[in-house]
Amino acid sequence: MKKITFITTDNETVTLEGSSGSVMELAVANNIKGIEGNCGGVCSCATCHVHVAPEFMKQVGKPGEIENDMLEFDDNVNEYSRLCCQINVADAPDGLVLKVAGEE
Ligand code: FES
Q1: Which fold has domain 2-100?
Q2: Confidence of residue 13 (pLDDT cuts 50, 70, 90)
């Protein structure tokens, strides 16, 4: 089991546990505000945009090419931006902290 903490757009901190699937799926299943996952995780909506806590960025890694193209359309992009449907829970560092990047 991995622990993943989300800081929502309301500044609420929610820690979830998971072992498989994508981080987006984990967030949606637990109603994390600001993570919608509209495209179902195929990297074409950017409604799963998060900012990775800087200390975890190296382990999580930079966005892939398609992911980057998608992020270009999103406001609020910074060097810690990732689309969390592209991060597998199994590959995520334990204790990962993600800030929801949505603007609601
Ligand atoms: S869920 Fe659509 S890009 Fe991540």
Answers
A1: Ubiquitin-like (UB roll) (3.10.20)
A2: very high
